[in-house]
């Protein structure tokens, strides 16, 4: 994508956060995240050439919502054990539960 041509959205640790430079061009009807998991790993042009296993696509309705989502996702991904739990999850429900638990844990800490 055009965004990836400017700079990789891989942030290290096998994680990428692709997002539009200006969320208003996406035209999202609601703020949302799309999660992709790859056991084999994807080439996201990460520093050090590490494969990317977790891709979280951020879609937002406004710049402020975009910044809020990016901040929350960044904080969630720093919670101990979350990325490993996501990579090891066997079902969509297990992934969803991990994310909801992490969100609840983060909400308590804020």
Protein architecture, described:
By secondary structure, the chain is an alpha+beta fold. Helix content is 41%, strand content 22%. The chain has a four-stranded mixed sheet with strand order 1-2-4-3. A hairpin with a 2-residue loop joins strand 1 and strand 2. The longest helix is centred in the last third of the chain and has 18 residues, at 92-109. The model has no long low-confidence stretch (mean pLDDT 84).
Largest sheet, if any? 4 strands, mixed
Biggest β-sheet: strands ordered side by side in the sheet: 1-2-4-3
> What structural category arises from helix and sheet content?
alpha+beta
Helix content bin? 40-55%
What do the pLDDT scores average to?
84
- Residue ranges: pLDDT <50 for 5 or more in a row? none
Q: What's the number of helices?
A: 4
* Number of strand segments: 4
What general outline do the C-alpha atoms trace? globular
Percent of sequence in beta strands: 15-25%
Name the helix and strand elements from N-terminus to C-terminus, one letter apiece: HEEEEHHH
- Give the CA-CA distance, first to last residue: 34 Å
Nearest-angstrom radius of gyration? 14 Å
């Amino acid at each position: 994508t055009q965004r990836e041509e400017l700079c990789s959205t891989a942030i290290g640790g096998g994680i990428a956060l692709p997002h539009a430079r200006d969320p208003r061009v996406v035209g999202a009807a609601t703020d949302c995240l799309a999660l992709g998991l790859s056991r084999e790993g994807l080439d996201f042009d990460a520093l050090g050439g590490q494969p990317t296993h977790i891709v979280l696509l951020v879609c937002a309705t406004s710049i402020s919502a975009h910044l809020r989502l990016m901040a929350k996702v960044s904080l969630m991904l720093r919670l101990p054990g979350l990325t490993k739990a996501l990579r090891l999850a066997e079902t969509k429900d297990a992934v969803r539960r991990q994310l909801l638990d992490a969100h609840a844990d983060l909400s308590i800490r804020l």
